[in-house]
Amino acid sequence: MASVNLGSLVQSYSIFNQASRTNSKSFPLPRSFPFNPLKNISSSTPKRHSFTSLPSISSVLTKEDAVMEEDQDPQLPSFDFKSFMVQKGNAVDQALDSAVPLRDPVKIHEAMRYSLLAGGKRVRPVLCLASCDLVGGKESMAMPAACALEMIHTMSLVHDDLPCMDNDDLRRGKPTNHKVYGEDIAVLAGDALLAFSFEHIAVSTVGVTPERIVRAIGELAKSIGTEGLAAGQVVDISSEGLTDVGLDHLEFIHVHKTAALLEAAAVLGAILGGGRDEDVEKLRKFARNIGLLFQVVDDVLDVTKSSKELGKTAGKDLVADKVTYPKLMGINKSKEFAEKLKSDALELLQGFDPEKSAPLIALANYIAYRQN
Description:
Layout: H1 19-22, H2 81-99, H3 106-116, H4 123-134, H5 139-160, E1 170-171, E2 174-175, H6 177-181, H7 183-204, H8 210-224, H9 229-239, H10 247-272, H11 277-304, H12 307-310, H13 316-319, H14 325-329, H15 331-347, H16 354-369
Antiparallel strand pairs: 1-2
Helix pairs in contact: 2-5, 3-7, 4-5, 4-10, 4-16, 5-7, 5-10, 8-10, 9-10, 10-11, 11-15, 11-16, 15-16
């Protein structure tokens, strides 16, 4: 079966069918989502979905990450998400350190490594590795792609922090790249990370057919170009200061700016791990939901946490007069939306091996309840 065209799937859809359209200024939305994560949403607390066929999750990153006792199967072992993230994160860090050594020209490699190895949650590479395992693949098959995703994510952060973009001074609790190395080197370091990410997948992936490697590279390219990250970023920039932006417009931004790269992580892992097309598409939709979930939570944290708690500048969206979910929906409705996205994401994992699904279930919970 031919590779699915990301452009026909990663498309904007309407969250609210009436209110956001009548009084909103919106960019053309040539895409249409194949599902609606807010279908049947109400003002009451969303119904908890029971996953009695799945393992219990005992995520210790936050107390909220644990699935309620009544939804757990006592016959299945609990899953330690913190240990999993630490183990996989360390493996990714070692792979990144090896992939981008300090060599000539020293300055640009220093700048690349400064941001690439500055820490972070490694959500995208871990999602890639977990998706590969879910469909029966080995970690080695997806590790170069996992590293490539983190390189691209780091590039987006370096460029996003530039004075011509968000003009930020703090990232992951440290001075931003351009504050340390200057704007010129920061731009070039981001460019180098982007270019090397594709080279790394192409030359370092082992145990995978060339057809699947090419398919994965194509998916990754679309996720960061004008059908993904770049599209979301430019619409986001163009929306600053607008007073009549609706939820469909905001959704377009974040489906492309945030969700697309998370979607690519899950899709790349499934493709490189040898997954069937139907499994790839389930994971595509799962990641799309948690991608939007990530952004909704991020918007809420931006207005409810301090810079010290976040490790980055808090309240910057408010200062920049950016459109956010709390601004359009309020904090409580935004939290309700986040819960709905999480529930819909978890439904898509039913039918997979319960033990192998555990990391993805815990990841959705972690994204929903993270504090920074």
